[in-house]
Specification:
Chain lengths: ~260, ~325
């Protein structure tokens, strides 16, 4: 049985995002990156399957610029067998249709029984790449998965997904299938020292995708802007003590405290 | 009858336990906004085992026409059936836009449907405007710190609309729209729906609280939650809530979760402590009367939704606030 986990590098959440001169994208330079939180959960879910069955193969794939290799190495450090990097250095916004087409073309040529992605990326928050790639390859797909269990004959998988309002839906899918994993459903492991040493030496297979620029992106990012304030947004000034005193005054005037 | 120059808009109506989801009326408001930019006929599409009765609720409230599609195999939601049936309907009556809720259910089939229909798909839409004859859709990116303005390069366009943004479309004195009921058969090939159950329980403590003090990732460590409870003690009628990440970590209970997949709250005062303000959280608290946010990141998106902004580390600020308050009450 072979598993594939798709991972993405995302900027840290406390980064400042500065709009560049084109007004279409942000300056990439001062940003530091990490593995998307949802993808970490997806990887942990796949690793847990392999923990209980050592014959399972587990590859990790990332579509993106050169620094995608950093998170592929992190995934190898966590325990993945091999890394694949579909290099794509498009400047600015990459449509989920392009990313999904890259993944789909790789899946069509390399056989996997089960594919994992995060339910969404923390930076674009589209939730599209997994379901798109599944449909492009004709696989069934369930999103926001919180639990999975492969059948003993390895021909199907039982999954539970999260809906709103604390409800859980369950499905049985024929393999091969694609699952997008909800964040926070497990505790992603830290890379182990022996795996990190192996990861540093490991060769990452790099594919220069000729699909970039050829795939119809379907959508165009015409510009980006700073969100407008929807409320007053009165910023308190002064020392911590002064700010606390001001807030007490405001809340007293509004009669929230006495 | 649709005029020749009119486009067609589909709204996909989500329902659960024989109730139409409230987001459907917000989708209708979004459709109405698109219609004002490009003339269009709107049709609400509802799929289910017995969808007709549900469709009447929609046609009576909105005055829009509906197509109720009875599918015997659809006792439970199934993405394969949704994609197949909507795609077949779209081949018969090609829509320019399909509007779906940005919900766990909507997101589950929207992108796959787009591939089948060779449509564009834009998710998490929070607003729209006209740009050079096309419709430009606004959505959040980068933790809510940036808005992207996205256009589709071709029609049809599928969009998923963020709940809690558009004012529900309930026009006065709407004369009820017509319902066309169809019956189709559709057996899924690879996806078998097994059931639905409630695993987490909500109570009314969050939705009925006058004041909510809420914690997010900025809390840092579980022990620091004590600060949040101490802060909440200051306010009569208060409850402690939190963003999803703290519930995932098991630091707070599910009934305390505020946001898209948790409670929708509109207290008189909402204190957001160390909450970044991603759209999923905002969906649960945007309607609050007065919003105070404490966050050390001056660029945090929550500040755009706040009446008062405190740019400080909550673990430094809250103890000082509690101390200052104590001085005021015990002179």
């Amino acid at each position: 049985m072979k598993l594939l986990v798709c991972v993405k590098q995302v900027p840290e959440s406390d980064s400042s995002f500065i709009i560049d001169d084109s007004q279409k994208w942000i300056y990439k330079e001062p940003l530091s990156y990490k593995m998307n939180r949802f993808d970490e959960s997806a990887l942990e879910e796949a690793l847990s399957i392999r923990d209980s069955n050592k014959s399972v193969g587990l590859d990790v794939l990332s579509v993106g610029p050169e620094n995608s290799k950093d998170i592929i190495r992190r995934a190898l450090g966590m325990g993945a067998d091999a890394g694949i990097h579909i290099f794509c250095d498009a400047d600015g916004y990459i449509s989920p249709f392009v990313t999904a087409a890259c993944i789909a073309s790789y899946i069509k040529e390399n056989i996997y029984d089960l594919i994992f992605t995060g339910a969404m990326s923390e930076d674009y928050m589209q939730g599209q790449v997994g379901p798109l790639a599944a449909e492009m390859t004709g696989m069934p797909c369930v999103s926001f998965v919180v639990k999975q269990e492969i059948s003993p004959d390895q021909k199907s998988i039982y999954v539970e997904r999260e809906m709103d309002g604390g409800l859980i839906e369950s499905f049985e899918l024929t393999l091969p299938a694609l699952l997008t994993i909800q964040g926070g459903i497990n505790k992603p492991r830290y890379p182990s020292l022996s795996n990190v040493l192996r990861a540093n030496r490991a060769e990452i297979r790099t594919i220069n995708s000729d699909l970039i620029g050829k795939t119809d992106p379907k959508q165009i990012n015409s510009r980006i802007t700073i969100p407008e304030k929807r409320r007053d947004g009165y910023v308190l000034s002064g020392s911590v003590q002064e700010k606390a005193a001001k807030l007490i005054r405001i809340l007293s005037q509004k009669a929230f405290i006495t | 009858m649709r005029k020749p120059d009119q486009k067609l808009i589909f709204i996909i109506a989500e329902h659960h336990e024989n109730k139409v989801k409230s987001v459907v009326f917000e989708l209708a408001a979004c459709a109405d906004k698109i219609k004002k930019i490009c003339p269009a006929e709107i049709k609400v599409i509802i799929l289910g085992r017995e969808p007709e009765k549900l469709s009447f609720e929609i046609t009576h409230t909105t005055g829009l026409d509906a197509v109720a599609i009875e599918i015997n195999e659809l006792a439970l939601y199934n993405a394969e059936i949704y994609k197949t049936v909507i795609n077949n309907l779209a081949e018969e009556f090609p829509p320019s836009f399909i509007i779906i809720g940005h919900t766990p259910c909507g997101l589950d089939f929207a992108s796959g449907l787009a591939v089948r229909m060779k449509a564009a798909c834009i998710t998490g839409v929070e607003g729209l405007s006209e740009a050079g004859g096309k419709i430009c859709f606004r959505r959040q990116m980068f933790y809510g710190k940036i808005n992207a303005h996205i256009t589709a390069d071709s029609e049809p366009v599928i969009i998923t609309v963020q709940p809690g943004i558009f004012e529900p479309y309930k026009p006065d004195n709407a004369s009820p729209g017509r319902v066309e009921t169809r019956r189709v058969e559709c057996a899924p090939k690879f996806t078998l729906a097994k059931g639905i159950r409630r695993c987490k329980f909500q109570d009314s403590s969050i939705s009925e609280a006058k004041v909510i003090v809420s914690a997010g990732n900025g809390i840092g460590a579980k022990e620091n939650l004590d600060l949040i409870y101490r802060l909440a003690d200051i306010f009569p009628g208060s409850a402690v809530g939190g963003s999803r990440i703290l519930i995932d970590r098991g630091w707070l209970e599910y009934r305390q979760q505020v946001g898209l997949t948790g409670a929708q709250a509109a207290p008189e005062l909402y204190m957001a402590c160390g909450i970044s303000g991603a759209s999923q959280h905002l969906a649960g608290m945007r309607g609050s009367g007065f919003i105070v946010s404490i966050n050390k990141d001056p660029g945090a998106a929550i500040f755009n939704e706040s009446d008062v902004c405190v740019v400080e580390d909550l673990n430094k600020f809250i103890p000082v606030f509690i101390e200052e308050y104590g001085k005021k009450t015990d002179p």
